[in-house]
Specification:
256 residues, mainly alpha, Multidrug-efflux Transporter Regulator, Chain: A, Domain 2, two-stranded antiparallel ribbon, 12 helices, 63% helix
Amino acid sequence: MLTISQLATYAGVTTRAVRHYHQIGLLPEPERDQSGYRSYDADAVVRLIRIHALADAGVPLARVQELLDAGPEEFADGVQEIDKELRGEIRRVQRTRKRLARLAGGQHLALPECVVDYLDRLRDLGVEEQYIELERDAWIMVAAQVPDAIEAVIARKHEDLNDPDVIKLYSLLNGAVEMPADDARIVEFADIIERLAIRAAAAGELDATAFDDGFAALLDATMLNSSPGAERLLAILEARGWQGWTRLHQVPRSAG
């Protein structure tokens, strides 16, 4: 008969592990002898080795009992199920590591990957970082507001980048953050935005946002505060019959 130390040595574990397996019910605890010591037999050694092998292979201790008591077919099914769970966990950890790598590299906090990719595409178009930071902050708010729709919204933004007017608009954005109200480019901005709005209205795609009024007002205020020339841009559009920004819409002109 074996002492707990001998049992642990033969199974390649610590006595602390043996006591833990007793506590959670994986290894039956033998009766103590007259001297108060536990004594173990060969069956205990075999069971402990099997427990250790399963745990060392990555099987959660909560699942070890069912595998120990399973027949060959049930054992194989159980192992496959655990492997599937582990593969899912590995994918989750890989996604987490990718997010952490982006943060460590100074990338965008609180942004879905699809938005990060879109902003990277703007960089490839030569849009300056100062403007991208403004758009990034707006997307952080938008993504939090409509998390289930953000991928579709960004997919549409990628499609928009195939439009020469949109490309032209972004080409004008360098330096726009500090653009004064009398900058000649503001009229060109207004021309492009109006053309885009007319085409969107014709396609029934204008004002397709799902934001509440308060959030739309917040985005509008953010745009107005983004540049000294922003207020003039909105004034030009309003003079042409357009109102709003987040929900840009055409105002019917009264007769006469």
